[in-house]
Amino acid sequence: MRKIFCVWMVACVALIITGPLFAQKAQAPAARKAPARPVYPPRVLAPHVFTPINPYLDMLNITNIHDIGSVAEKDSSYTWARDVSFRSKVWYLNIEFKPLRVIILDLPGRDGKLQRMPVWYLIYKVRNPGDVFTPVAKSLDAQAITLRKVLTDVGNHPLLAERHYYEITSSEENLRFIPIFELVTLDAKQLDPATKKEKVVNRRYIDRFMPLAVSAICRKEDPGRKILDSVQMSNRVIRPGEEVWGVAVWSGVNPTVDHFSIYVSGLTNARKWFPDENDPTKGVYKNKTLKLNYWHPGDESPVSQRSDAFKMGYSGVLDYEWIFR
């Protein structure tokens, strides 16, 4: 009995001594903090790294003159339904972009396995200038009426006499950039299985949603700055005076292409009326779109492409231009 009591006493003492140690050991993993991730400041870029783009908005871009087709074709005596000026509030975003580049990454393919593939990408930044073209309701004075009549008689556009209908005002309106980056090849080559010869095949590539590629691009370009993909950019509201960075990415582009263009939509709501060639009372509106022109020496191997091979513009073609599309 005495022996059992001694054993019981030893066990109690051991439990009292080691109990707190077990408790501390059990709490240690919960109290241990994960190592802090390094915080990088945004990189300071050299001058002229970004290429600024002028939106070139003027009266011809934001006023459309055409017939009210549904009325004019019913009765030719309705002269008020012809050459009607259609005006609307027009906003725009300033855009600047870095040189087009390529990065080679190991990304999951369609079968789920990692594949080495080149990803073309374009870093850009958009800014809301806070300036909006706003229509101002004013009547034409005698001088403007005379000028309009003269210009109309000689067959010129009468908008020169209507400039005072518009003014540029500062706006506190938030804007949203819903980007559409479309890369169109002009002379890519592809082997024809039937003839076993190469043929020119022009293809269109839309900016893709590739989070893994965007993360790798951000680490390479500027790990201290938030760079948004097109989906994130679409969900972002840009306040007046605010600047936001983004990136457009493409994969699977034919490596043999020498000349291609990138069309950027969503930078402005300006549009233009284009009448139907067969029926002037009908037509379509086309949106103002930025077109970037590139030259790139073709390469048979996709993974051997280099970023320094992309050049803007080529013989007889501008670096960029605004079109209606």
The run of helices and strands is: HEHEHEEEEEEHEEEEEEHHEEEEEEE
Main beta-sheet strand count, sense and barrel state: 7 strands, antiparallel
How many strand segments? 21
User: Which consecutive residue ranges, at least 5 long each, have pLDDT under 50?
Assistant: none
- What's the overall average pLDDT, rounded? 80
Indicate the proportion of strand residues. 25-35%
- The helicity comes to 10-25%
The number of helical runs is: 6
Give the end-to-end Cα distance, rounded to a whole number of Å: 101 Å
Q: Which class best fits the helix and strand makeup?
A: alpha+beta
Which value, in Å, is the CA radius of gyration?
32 Å
Q: Based on CA inertia axes, which overall geometry fits?
A: globular
Throw out a few tags for this protein:
325 residues, seven-stranded antiparallel sheet, five-stranded antiparallel sheet, 21 strands, globular
What does this entry look like structurally?
This protein is an alpha+beta fold and 325 residues long. Helices cover 20% and strands 34% of the residues. It has 6 helices and 21 strands. The chain is globular and about 105 Å long. The protein starts with a helix and ends with a strand. The relative contact order is 0.16. The model has no long low-confidence stretch (mean pLDDT 80).
